[in-house]
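JOB MANIFEST
job_type = single_chain_structure
chain_count = 1
residues = 571
[input]
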Amino acid sequence: MSELLPGYSPNFKKPAEILRLSRRRSRSEVGPRGALFSPGEVARRVPGVRPFSPGTQRSGGGAVKRRNPFASLENTLEAKRRAGSVPECDFLGDRCSVAAVEKKPEPVQFHSVEDVLWGDSLEPEPTDTTKIESPEKPLTITEPAQGLLTYPSDWSLKTRLLFTSPHPFSWTDHLKAQEEAQGLVLHCRATPVSLPQIIAEPKQCTELRCAFQQALVSWLHPSLPWLPLFPRIGVDRKMIGKNSPWSQDESLQQVLMSEWSISITSLYNLVKAKLCPYFYVCTYQFTVLFRAAGIAGSDVITAVMSPTTRGLREAMRNEGIEFSLPMVENDPNRKQKSSETSHSDDKEIGNTSEGEEVPLDSEDDDESFLWLEEMGVEDKIKKPDSISIKLRKEKNEVKLDHRPESVVLVKGANTFTLLNFLINCKSIVAAAGSQAGLPPTLLSPVAFRGATMQTLKARSLNVKTRDQSGYKDQFSLEISGPIMPHAVHSLTLLLKAAQRGSFSTSLYTHEPTTVFNTSIHGQDSKEKDSSELVNCGLHPLTLEQFSRLSLLGKTSIRQLDLSDYKYTWKC
C-alpha cells in the first residue's frame, strides 16, 4: 500500500496528528513563504504565472498535482495583481495569454459610508467574458402611493372589525357608568362630538370615551336574545336546537308579523321624512337596503334588493312595482347580447321551403331548422309552441338567480309599493326549518317603533410580535356584531384622533350585501344636496361621505389603513 500511495503511513492513527503532518509537508513543498509554485513548474510553464491548478504537490513516485476544490483563482491572484508582481491573464485550461501590467492600481480610498457599502473598488474588474455592474448609490425603496383624507362609502354590512395600531387601545376598556350613560344620551339626541386632531392622553379624555360608546349603538327588531338575528342568510345550522315557540303557533306568528309591520312602516316614514338615512331588511333569502333621498347621490328614495330570483321578480311585476337591474343594464357586454337577442326575436317567424311558418328565436334554432329542411324531415318534427319560445326568452333571466347580477333597484314611489309587498308577501318568512315563522331582521342607525337598542361588542388585546430587532408590542381592538356603514365611519374618526393618525383595519363583510356598493346612477350623475338630512342622526362628516356616489361596484373594502392621517384601502 505504501508503494502505491506515496505519503501513506499506517503508523499514524490519530486524525489530528495526520492533519498536522500534512500541513507541515505542504509548507515544505511549497518552498519559501510567498512562493506559489516550484522552480520546475516555472521552467515548464510561462514564467511568473501559475496555471489554474491551485493546491499542493506531493513528492516522489511521479505524483500528480491535486487541484484544491476550495481555492478561488481570483482570491489567489488579486493581491499579486494589485501589487504588480503578477500580470493579468485570461485562463483557458493550461494556456494563458499574458498582458503586461504597465501601472499599478491606486490605493482604495473611502470618502463616505456609501463608498464603503457601494464602492466600485470592492468589486472585481470585469473581463471580456464577465461584466459585473455595481450601483454607484444605495437602492431606494419606492414610496407607496399617497393616501387620501377620506375613503369611499361602503354600503355592505360587516360582521367583524379588527383594528391594529402601534399605540394602545386601553382607553376603550372599562368605561365608567357616567361615560356609558353620556354616550347613550349623545346617541339618542344625535349630538355630534368634535374632537381635536391629536389626543395626547386618550384614556383621560372623557369626550373620546363617551363618543366611543355612542358609535357602538344601533337599533334592531325583533329582539330575541337567545337567537342570532344577524346574519339571516345561511345560518340555519347555527339556529338548530334554539327555542322557537312560534314555529308551531300560528297565532303567535301573526302577532310577531303584526309588530314587525308596524316597525318597518315606522322606519319607512322616518326615511321619507329624512329623519333616518337608511335601514336594512334582512330575510332568510335576501336583503333590502332602503336609502333616503340625498343619500348615495339620489334625489329620491331608493331600495336595493339582493339576491333575487325570477319568481320574486315576477311577483314584484305582478304587484306593479317598477324596477331595474343596474348591473345588467350598465354592462356593455350584456347590452350587446340582449340587443342581438331582441333583434332575433323580432324576426320570430321564418318561412320554410314549403311555405310553413316556423317560429325562430335565435340563430341556433335557425340553423337547426335549416338542417331539418335539408334532410327532408321538417314536417315530422314538432315545432316549438309559444310556451317553449317564452321559456327560451327567459333563459338569460333565470341565469341571474342567486347571483350578484340579480340585484334589483327600486326608486321613488315604487319603494312604497315595495314596502306593502314585503309586508304582505308570505315568502319572506320561512315556512319550515330553524327560522320558521321568524320575521325578518330590521337594522337602523336611529330609533323606531318597536326597536331595541343594541351595543356592539368591543374587546382590546395586547400581543407580542416578532420584529427584526426582537419583540415589540402590538395592540388590537376587535368589534363584532351587525356593523352598519355609519358605525365603521364613526369608529375610524375616533381612532384617527386617538391613535395619532396610524392604524390598520381588517373588515369582514357579509358577502350577500357586497353588491349594495353598485352604482345606481349613470356615469354622468352628480352628487345631490344633502343639507335636508342634517337631522338624520349621522355625524356631519359621515353624512358628507354617504351623500357621494358609490364607487366600489361589486367589491367592498377588505383592508383599510391610516398612515400620517391619510387613508389607503384594498378591496
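[summary]
Residues 15-105 form one domain.
Residues 246 and 369 are 57 Å apart (CA to CA).
exit_status = 0
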